[in-house]
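ok trying this again, last paste got cut off
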Amino acid sequence: MEENNSKWGFGIIVSVILMSLFVFLLGFKNSIDSNPVVVYTVYLDGKSIGTISSKDSFEEFINEKEEQLKQKYDVDTVYTPNGVEIKKNLTYNNIVNSNEQIYNKIVSNKKFTVKGYQITIDNPDEKGDKKILYTLNKDIFDDAIQNTIKAFVDEKQYEDFLNGTQEEITDLGSMIENIDLYENIYYKEMYIPTDMEIFTNVEDLSKYLLYGTLEEQETYQVQANDTIETVASNHKLNVQELLIANPDLTSANNLLYDSQELVVGLIDPVISIVVETHSVEDEERDYDTEVQYDSTQYVGYQEVIREGEKGLYRVTRKRQYINGQLASGTITNSTEIKPAINRVVVKGDKYAPSVADLSYWAWPTDRPYTITSPYDYRWGSLHAAIDIYVGYGSPVYAANNGVVERIGTGCTPGYTTCNGSQGNFVLINHNAGGYHTIYMHMKDVNVTVGQTVARGQKIGTMGNTGDVYPVPSSYSPYAGTHLHFGVFVGSAYGATINPLNLY
């Protein structure tokens, strides 16, 4: 009996073991046969930060959470930050993170993005100096460019240029030949981080392109007896800059009224609007005064033996303006209509002409000429001379008798800056009243230090050495050509006066 019970107990134990093994194997088989699930792994800068069940629902979650960004930029969709990747995966592990968990990990490290454009402004003269702007769409930048052009070009003339309705020059007149940007502009569509400055409207971008900042510009209330010229000068602007900052002023001759508010901020354009014009104009040519010396008469004797008469020339010019400032003025044709008749004065002269006659000054270049920059404030500082353009290599003359006090030479014309900003230059001491004259940016210097020069004597040629604008280059070697003609009174490099006051 005991033997039978032992056998029965052993059978039960074996049965239990077999059933347990069956259940285990069945469960293992079911596990192998189950289908893998789809999940999405989220990476931040290449590092996994978790998984989510649906990419679409996560992106919808972001758009719900970032409602403020959508309203700020007036967009329908906010996108994940740059550096975030969401990749589809298959897994048997169906444990995933919530959208909230992944969102919180991202928002604490990165800024979300909106779709827009990166605009690169590349100045070909300044390698590596590129300005980057961001806008929601390309049209904002294009419209801001149009507004910037209209700040420097009369709107009616601009419309006629665009429409091809400018009047052709039949006798006298002028017309716009071309309008372009000096810089190269590149557009790139991208997702822009919302911590960047993103321009969302034309008005703000137009202001930035003109002033180089979005800060409020300084204003001034007109006082009694103010003129456009005095307001501009008192705020270190030239008249043209003041007109550009105040589009309601159409001319330097506009009358101002008491308490009128004017913008007097310094313009600092981000882009360069290049306008090329063609003109045919009748221009008077001033007569020269020929001084004849009578060595039998003492200094102070003077007699006019012939009065002078102005001449008349018909001059064809090609002008280039950069942001409203005349950059170059090439004379393509000049026809004499009426010759000038020089005035002739006889003066007593019983000493060497190393001492200037302050009554008569010779013009330092040939005629006709163009004054490309006057004695005036320019870009916030005083341009204490006049810039005269005739042509590269044209003669430069001493304005009066004197002694060469200083020269600077050794430049390669058109390529190398030398002697600081002056380039090749001549400084003449006129030995009377403390007057000195300086002639800068010359191509050649034909005199030496200590040499006595006479009024009207050639001392060199016009060039573009030193710091000039536009900057000369291998493809434009004559760019920036002009004579910087300055007058000091009292001492060399002392107080300055407007050279035109001598004439």
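PB: full thing came through this time. The chain is about 20% helix and 35% strand.
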